[in-house]
Protein: Peroxisomal biogenesis factor 3
Organism: Oryzias melastigma
Amino acid sequence: MFSSLWSFVKRHKKKFIFTGVMVSGVYLLGKYAQKKLKEVQEKEAAEYIAQARRQFHFDSNQRTCNMTVLSMLPPLREAIMTHLNSESLTTLLKTKPANKLEIWEDLKIISFTRTIVAVYSTCMLVVLLRVQLNIIGGYLYLDNSAGRSPTTPLAPPDVQQQYLSSIQHLLGDGLMELISVVKRAVHSSLSGVSLKQSLSLLDMEQQLSWIRAEVEGPSGRPLSWYLLSDDESALADQACGLTEYDVMTIRLLNETRDMLDSPDFSAVLAACLNRAFSRLLDNLAEFFRPPQGGSTPSSAPDSLSVVSLPLAKIVPIVNGQINNICSDAPSPFVQDLLMSDHMKKFAANVYETFSTPQELQK
């Protein structure tokens, strides 16, 4: 029996060897496949966790952006009202001065100027802080990533503070220049319009379009100029006094300047301005509604085009709009800008750019 079994094995030895090799190969291949599958699963899990962590950090950063913008509205409003003080003129008018008409003309120009400046500067504030805080947010994400040395942060607290202080240009020299440009445009558009002349909401829209065309036209400064000084000495002055932070701060300012000069920034600022001026017209429309019981139904699409008010009545309406545009939190006007799709996409692109390690190798 055993001799027969041995003879059978010898006759089929090659088959047994081949089968054994095949079994071993399949086993090893299976083990290899399991190992690779585990590696892929671990890599996918790590990528998912990293992506979730990054998304959480981004979302948190956007909330910080929103709160920072809202906290900056009171000082912005105060700065505008200080430089364009219409309240002193209205107080003077109550004394019935001899030059009443001249004061009214000044009030007309100042009222329109400060409301339009409020729209421009609020949009600029929203977009500038979105750029700055997402640049900082991207670097902070990298600073907290695995493999980064805690002794060489990309955005130390002192650098962050000094970098973000550059917003003072918008509240200072930039705002003063913006006021000057807008005031010239308002004067050019409205100086010849009598206070007794009646204007409809469509007329108001046309006036705003003319003023915007002059402010944003190719002959003027780019809007980015009002946001951040492009003077090299000013950039150096803004840098932190501690030598080891100078280069970091100026680098952040230069990176911000590059972002402000980009087509994406111009597009998102233009979208914000269009949305903001549309919102301003919506606010004004409340004062141009036909009286209840009038012959023109208030729901008619063209009802607002047939209602006109003397410019003298429109001036105080326009004058008070700064309190809607730069209102304290919660500010519906600003929230509308913060939540726009253009703003969200732009913020995500800026954060993506500066939270990607490859950017550090440039």
About this structure: The chain has one domain: 20-288+307-357.
